[in-house]
Write a structure and sequence with these properties.
Helix content is 33%, strand content 17%. The chain has ten helices and nine strands. A hairpin with a 2-residue loop joins strand 8 and strand 9. Helix 2 runs antiparallel to helix 10 and helix 3 crosses helix 6.
Length: 296
């Protein structure tokens, strides 16, 4: 989802009355696009820009799935049952709220607290990444997506605290039935792109049930990219379910016109398992940014 805040200028229009829309079946069959990409837009998004982004994305991001490229004027008065409301595991994007909960429950005192390496991790579930198998600060664990560190924190936080804060934040479907600690990577806990965007807006506005200090720490840790034109605060995510890869990139980008919130979600059949899939999450989103003149 992509949302605009703080008085950003009206985006250029194509002359079309753009409404919440799912691409027609003929587009799905055309083969132009081959990834699921869910994007929600706060102001007017031109159809031409959407088509350009989708076509470019299909060249770099091969997958066996048809595409649902969601366009919506956000917030919308109509509760459309759109793909942007479909739920999937949040994967490592959950680290955003996970860090907030760890701070608020005093499981850690700051982002600089060190998590001790437990000596082993499940490389079948998480892949083999020896470069992260060491004592690590929470900030670095967030930046390099060291899942084992947040699993260790989750064991200390406990399901009761998760139920409390996830409910207060209206984050996800609240299904914590997964017995393992990492319910955000495997199990029935799910979230939609729209839900991601709503949560990010509330974090940005510091309207979540956490201390101002803790929200500011998390926003600082989310800093991903900064230059003279814009700053991005974000988190990626990647997991698998039923032989389908789910890839996320969520966050917000700030430029001179304001803040824009986004949640891009891609799905890929693991039979293909393209090495480009990881980069596609950002490539597709930045392509949209360019078409909307958010970045040059």
């Amino acid at each position: 989802g992509l949302d605009r805040r703080q008085g950003a200028e009206t985006l250029p229009r194509s002359g079309l009355d753009v409404k919440p829309k799912i691409w027609p079946e003929s587009f799905h069959r055309s083969g132009i696009a081959s990834v699921f990409a869910h994007l929600v837009v706060t102001s007017i998004y031109t159809l031409a820009a959407a088509t350009r982004s989708e076509a470019r994305a299909s060249l770099a991001c091969p997958a066996s799935q048809p595409s649902d490229f969601l366009l919506q004027k956000f917030p919308s008065g109509n509760p459309w049952p759109l793909p942007g409301r479909h739920l999937k595991l949040p994967a490592s994007t959950f680290k955003i709220i996970n860090l907030l909960i760890a701070l608020e429950t005093k499981t850690i005192s700051s982002e600089n607290d060190v998590v001790k390496w437990p000596g082993t991790t499940d490389t079948i579930k998480y892949g083999y990444r020896p470069e992260i198998y060491h004592d690590i600060t929470v900030k670095e664990a967030f930046e390099v997506s060291a899942g084992w560190a947040f699993v260790e924190l989750a064991k200390k936080i406990g399901k009761d605290n998760y139920k409390k804060y996830l409910s207060l934040c209206h984050y996800g479907n609240l299904d914590l039935s997964q017995t393992d600690a990492d319910f955000w990577n495997f199990g029935n806990f799910k979230i939609s792109p729209l839900n991601q965007v709503e949560f990010l807006k509330n974090l940005y506005d510091e309207k979540l049930p956490f201390s101002k200090r803790n929200m500011q720490i998390v926003k600082k840790v989310m800093l991903t990219e900064q230059n003279s034109d814009y700053t991005i605060y974000s988190k990626t995510g990647w997991t698998r379910e039923n032989e389908i890869n789910t890839g996320w990139w969520v966050g917000y980008i700030v430029n001179n016109n304001g803040a824009y919130f986004f949640a891009t979600r891609l799905l890929q059949d693991r039979k293909i398992n393209s090495t480009a899939f990881g980069n596609c999450r950002k490539d597709i989103t930045k392509s949209v940014f360019k078409d909307l003149n958010i970045v040059k």
